[in-house]
Design brief:
alpha+beta
Amino acid sequence: METSFAITGKGYVIVAADTTAARSIVKMQIDQDKIKELSPHLLMAYSGEPGDTVQFAEFVERNIRLYQIRNLYPLRPAAAASWIRRSIAESLRSRSPYSVNLLLGGYDTSLHAPNLYWIDYLGTAVEVPFAAHGYGSYFALSLLDRYHDPEASLEEGLAVLKRCIDEVSKRLVVNPGKYKVKVVDKDGIREVEI
């Protein structure tokens, strides 16, 4: 019952993910941060099988950090998305594939533009203006399609995201509860309250 959303606007990407860790009908944790900060201008919201998600998120974080140490500059969002997509696709052909869905948001400091990538457990990756994963996506994507504005200010983007969270809370059988929301822009990553 995991839910994550992301939306781009004028110079920013907002990423939100519920904080509930559950398996089947059992809640195991209600304060899990499912948004991993990969570099100063790159973050990733993940969902999927509980063991796979944390392990894969740490694998990605360490390898992106290793790239930065070796090359003295961080990966740009497009390059990070390609590497993550390839890693998932390669794991599909192994004995233990990762069952992870991702929303990768970043701010490209070279192009001065926000980037958002939707990546699924089959290794499909696409750059999108807004995205959602999980059961909440059935309700949120239509709202994002209607209200998304690529020139929206941060406050307007947060209002659209709040509208999505409210709709999921109202219509989904199992309410995910709390959400963690992070913004990435030219100033880096920060957590915001909704």
